[in-house]
Amino acid sequence: MEHYNMNLTLKVWKQKNTNAQGGFETYSVKNISSEMSFLEMFDVLNEQLINEGKEPVAFDHDCREGICGMCSMHINGRAHGPWAGTTTCQLHMRAFKDGDTITVEPWRSGAFPVLKDLTVDRTAFDRIIEAGGYISVNTGNAQDANCLPVDKHSADLAFAAAACIGCGACVAACKNSSAMLFVSAKVSQLALLPQGDPERKTRALNMVAQMDKEGFGSCTNTGACEAECPKEISLTNIARLNREFIGAGFTSEK
Amino acid sequence: MLNAKIPAGPLNNKWEDYKGHCKLVNPANKRSLEVIVIGTGLAGASAAASLGELGYKVKAFCFQDSPRRAHSIAAQGGINAAKNYQNDGDSVFRLFYDTVKGGDYRAREANVHRLAEVSGNIIDQCVAQGVPFAREYGGLLSNRSFGGTQVQRTFYAAGQTGQQLLLGAYSALERQVALGNVKMYSRHEMLDIVKIDGKARGIIARDLVTGELERHFGHAVLICSGGYGNVFYLSTNAMGSNVTAAWKATQNGAYFANPCFTQIHPTCIPVSGDHQSKLTLMSESLRNDGRIWVPKKQNDTRKASDIPEDERDYYLERRYPAFGNLVPRDVASRAAKERCDAGYGVGTSKQAVYLDFAAAIERYGNIEAGKRQLSNLSKAEIIKLGKEVVAEKYGNLFDMYAKITGENPYEQPMRIYPAVHYTMGGLWVDYELKTTVDGLYSLGEANFSDHGANRLGASALMQGLADGYFVIPYTLGNYLADEIRTKPIPTDHPAFVEAENKVKSTLSKLMSIKGTKSVDHFHKKLGKIMWDKCGMARNEQGLKEAIEEIKALRAEFWKDVRIPGSENEFNPELEKAGRVADFLELGELMCIDALHRRESCGGHFREESQTPDGEAQRDDANFSYVAAWEYKGDGQYELHKEPLEFVECKPTQRSYK
């Protein structure tokens, strides 16, 4: 692959803290290599800002290999930018060309308040998991692992749902700020496995209730979440969640 | 002399005996005992969850925005367990033996044996939590091979095993949060330990969003903060991975053991330029099927596809016919460096070797054609079938490689080079995982205990979860049983005030420097010194130079670092500065340790100590001990030794030939 360098204009959301008024700042960066990752380009920007005596841009990032789910930039109107199935940290500058203007915003959702610049608070996701995204088994309770065969098809589907990294791109991409893809991935993973069966009704009901309480919007089956999900979590998980939820609503004793 | 408090009796019975005789705490008393857990990776999350289940009052801290993001999440290949589901000769003893041998006889036998004993329970526990391990068509669990072993004992979930295990531990943790047994503090960083009457009694933490300092009391403190590979700047660690918690423990009297034992992983994507911020691992599982080679001709500039088979040097298969491409990591890394240094490297930088799947793709294609009873297929059709099989096994890794390099690994071999990955050294702990400070424990990668001088693949996940799920619930109780009369100490106690003032003054000092260079500038410089002089090969002269260079760099840092913003707000540059300040001290200690250990062993390769054919040469007569360093103030350390005794595994020259 040919390598090239580029000069770019960046329009970046700056916001001092949750309560402050935010706005776009315009920066230019030069000689950006096509081999850099998008976040390495931000490293260059921040180094430049520090050298100029200005405040760098705060953004979340950690593993930089697409698995921790911490990075979270809305790039040119798309969660995690232009590449399908890719987190911000795995987006590389090959995706852009010399002279481009790139607009970078934080996730936009009432349930994800901005902490500073591009950093948002996603603890709502933790609270949804607390509501039921687990199997109640204490350490030491387990039987031998192979006493519980799981047919390969279900195991593979459960794994595909479990690949969710909890980044929140689905919420950021959704016009309603719905967290249905996130919730459905966890409910599906556990509903597809025999271990998850005893708590499946309360899990679906409680996780959805917590999602609503956190202020996430409703699902209108647009599919933007699936299109922007860096782990390509399937929309069929939402259909499964709806089945689980409705079924639980009809048959639950509570 | 350090006392590891290893229980008496035969190796097989030590852990059973310990469990049978350790002190217990009754449920009513557990409710009034408070435990602080630093870090929420596999070790921290599993410990916090298990202790919460037992009824202790737990506070867990992580610097990330959620406990689910700890860097255990990035582990790819798998987790070992001596289940012997494959009927291929595995046993607790084999896993124990492989681990001690793989660690080049620098690990403590009793700890490693316990690890092997509980390994099977880990798999049971994870499956019960709903961890979606790979399965066979019959519904039972699947296994694969990893380096340094001749059995298939590695359980996996595609190339995302760490993620799935961590999400399992995280869900157990969140369940305890919901039940009120664990209080979670995310976006918090521990900045000091509070000691009262010689015992760890709490911490000072900084709320990273507001910048406020907080005091937290605990009857015990568990450091589960991971490894220190980021001292090299470039590593496979997450950007935030740091040594700060372990280093504050060191400054408070916990000894730091074997700091120079670092693992350089053989299969990582090579550095592409000065902008590089981290290195990405390509899982060791790829060496199951990939063949590693370089051209037989020096400075060969042909494309890989233009180099005929007989002009390729499959140097691992040539040098190590018994283990081939699956030799342990330290051996594979050194062999790659040797070829590149000798002028056989590939790619523009010449600091890379090929990892080639062409043979595997063809082999799988033929097998698949046989399964489907297809005959008379063209080579292209066979390769198409083979690519589908390889995609199912390693698809996410191949995709990641393609995104980072812009090259298609299905069509041309991957270029790989060794990179810093894991640190075997860490806080010295005894058999109970207690440091040299009472009430202060260390679990997982943050301690030194199980991997000796080299860790085998798929063993880090095993150790983190063993420590958290199955060891600490017993050993911590043995300590806390004597603490049931200790009432929670109010945080206005002078020790808390003093510790907080110390942290405050360090932060103010950092902010007041207002120098000219960014934190990253110093971190990169430190990384280069460490990689050049305390990396894959070390020698006396280089290490002596490195110590002087690090001292000078540290002095410059404290005079010239520039940190924008203030300490009373969300300030990522200030967070980094504190971590780099600690790395600047640890780096020096690593060089001191590497200089004093005049033998080669595992990942520690002293050029002065090698066999005639270039393998690491141990010196058991003089160095069969754990080197535990006591902090004595700025740049001063005193060496304490824990002699290693090998009863079951007699040390031999490690051979994989």
Automatic annotation (TrEMBL), chain A:
What protein is this chain from? Answer: Succinate dehydrogenase/fumarate reductase iron-sulfur subunit
- Per the UniProt record, which residue ranges are transmembrane? none
Upper classification of the source organism reads: Bacteria, Pseudomonadati, Bacteroidota, Chitinophagia, Chitinophagales
Q: Which organism is it from?
A: Chitinophaga qingshengii
Q: Which cofactor does it need?
A: [2Fe-2S] cluster; [3Fe-4S] cluster
Q: InterPro entries per the record?
A: 2Fe-2S_ferredoxin-like_sf, 2Fe2S_fd_BS, 4Fe4S_Fe-S-bd, Beta-grasp_dom_sf, Helical_ferredxn, SDH/FRD_Iron-Sulfur, Succ_DH/fum_Rdtase_N
Q: Which SUPFAM superfamilies match?
A: 2Fe-2S ferredoxin-like (SSF54292), alpha-helical ferredoxin (SSF46548)
Family, as annotated: Belongs to the succinate dehydrogenase/fumarate reductase iron-sulfur protein family.
The UniProt entry, under Pfam families, shows: Fer2_3 (PF13085), Fer4_8 (PF13183)
Domain 4Fe-4S ferredoxin-type: where? 155-185
Automatic annotation (TrEMBL), chain B:
> Which InterPro entries does the annotation name?
FAD-dep_OxRdtase_2_FAD-bd, FAD/NAD-bd_sf, Fum_R/Succ_DH_flav-like_C_sf, Fum_Rdtase/Succ_DH_flav-like_C, SdhA/FrdA/AprA, Succ_DH/Fum_Rdt_flav_su, Succ_DH/fumarate_Rdtase_cat_sf
List, for all copies, the residue spans of the domain called Fumarate reductase/succinate dehydrogenase flavoprotein-like C-terminal: 523-656
Q: Where is the FAD-dependent oxidoreductase 2 FAD-binding domain?
A: 35-461
Q: Which cofactor does it need?
A: FAD
Q: Does the keyword Flavoprotein apply?
A: yes
Going by the UniProt record, its keywords in alphabetical order are: Flavoprotein, Oxidoreductase
| Coiled-coil region | none
What is the superkingdom listed in this entry's lineage? Bacteria
State the NCBIfam families in the record: PRK07573.1, sdhA_Bsu
Name by which UniProt lists this protein: Fumarate reductase/succinate dehydrogenase flavoprotein subunit
Q: Which organism is it from?
A: Chitinophaga qingshengii
